[in-house]
Amino acid sequence: MPDAAGFCPRCGAPAAAGGAAGPPPGAPAAAGTGPAPAAVSGISDKRILPATLLCLLLGMLGVHRFYVGKIGTGILTIVTVGGFFGIWPLIDFVMIVTGSFSDQQGRRLVLWT
Predict the structure, then answer these.
(1) Confidence class for position 42, pLDDT limits 50, 70, 90
(2) What DSSP string describes 42-100?
(3) Is the pLDDT of residue 39 over 60?
(4) Which of 59, 61, 83, 104 would staple 69 via disulfide (CB 3.0–4.6 Å)?
(5) 77, 61 Cβ separation under 8 angstroms
(6) Does residue 56 sit in the same domain as residue 109?
């Protein structure tokens, strides 16, 4: 059954006019349809290693937040001088290396390279 947006919640294929979405249950989805596997699984396509290095080297400027797509909080980090003198990048660093940091879509960074 398609969701409210008109896409199959299982494979992400667009719903047909009659309400059926994608292939029947158990059948493989057609190549090139639906979202990328990372989007389905909740795992970000961004990596921990670059985010960690950016946080360590340029954390006061919020560059690691720009890397994961969090533009608004990246700008806020710059405006508040690193979240009040470095507290924000320190917390982000701990969250990144423990696998708790997420990208703009809420998908967690779990892959190092």
Answers:
(1) confident
(2) TB-SS-HHHHHHHHHHHGGGTHHHHHTT-HHHHHHHHHTIIIIIHHHHHHHHHHHHHT-
(3) no
(4) 104
(5) yes
(6) yes
* Of the candidates 100, 96, 110, the residue with the CA atom closest to the CA atom of residue 44: 110
User: How far apart are alpha carbons 21 and 64 in whole angstroms?
Assistant: 38
Domain hosting 51: range is 38-113
Residue 22 and residue 54 in one domain: no
Residues 85 and 49 occupy one common structural domain: yes
The rounded distance, in Å, linking the Cα atoms of 36 and 53 is 26
In degrees rounded to 5, what are phi and psi of residue 14? -65, 145
